[in-house]
Amino acid sequence: EKLLYEGVLDQLAGDIPRFQRIARACALLDGLSAFAEAAARYNYAMPAFSEQPGIEIVGGRHPVVERQVENFIANDTRLDPTRRMLLITGPNMGGKSTTMRQVALIVLLAHVGCFVPASAARIGPVDAIFTRIGASDDLASGRSTFMVEMTEAAAILHGATDQSLVLMDEIGRGTSTFDGVALAVAIARHLLDKNRCWTLFATHYFELTRLAQDYPECANVHLDAVEHNHGIVFLHALEEGPASQSYGIEVAALAGIPSAVVRDAKRRLRALENREISAGPQADLFASLPPEEPESTGHPVLGALANIDPDALSPREALEALYELKRLTA
Fold first, then answer.
1. pLDDT in tens, 286-300
2. Which residues of 13-47 are buried (b: 16+ CB within 10 A; e: fewer)?
3. CATH T-level topology, domain 43-257
4. What is the pLDDT of residue 59?
5. Distance CA 8, CA 15 (A)
6. What is the pTM of this model?
7. Rounded to an integer, what distance in angstroms lies between the CA atom of residue 298 and that of residue 303?
8. Where are the domains of the chain?
């Protein structure tokens, strides 16, 4: 059998270049058919390439996230010589990172020959896509999360050109507030002054929104949220202008942080907002605070239910408790 196998290989050896060309053609056909199937199934649009600089996306969607949610909110994105940087603000979970990633994915899909998840897309010359997204350390190399963040930012500042697409997600969050703000502002200014690249810059530092006053090509956009019934509703729609607040404490409450911790955080937030920043390197988080808000008692039915021990009730007492609960709901 081994001799027969080796004999077959010897006979085919001369045709190996032909088989390789056939394999490459099959792989290309497989990839193109997958692109076509995705475009037809998910309503992708054919992108238009242009010699004019800029990126314009109408009704852009994230190809992965839109498959995971019931009603994905599509957003428009416009970058041109008069609008080179979008400063994106808004709450955590509001959709900042998703919006940034979908722009990069649309540009990448267009360049590999695929239709894109959007109503329409016009893409000018793009020579590279640079990203600084996420937070992770590198224990094997002895690098902290902040060091990894700065290393990636340095690579962008040294490598991005006026035809590059740059994604910066919450740069400077791995260090103290003042250091982080200073670095974020300096990096944003360098991208505007020196690199002149197409930039999506997401941040929770509202100080950065003032850059739009100094740089006409910098625009503020935000993903909004509204408070409703003591909770928060994310709208996921990209709007012009800076966000009004970050809703960080509300998001923490959604994540299950104990109510006592949330109330304490709100008190400290009010104290920081109302107090002039002292001459120290950071505002004093341990100074005297406003009086604590009383814990919300909620509906009286909840209080009554909390006081009932169902294992200790007789059938008659259980019936009387049920009538009492019904009376409280009236």
1. 455 555 555 555 567
2. eeeeeeeeeeeeeeeeeeeeeebeebbeeeebbeb
3. Rossmann fold (3.40.50)
4. 96
5. 12
6. 0.78
7. 8
8. 1-42, 43-257, 300-329
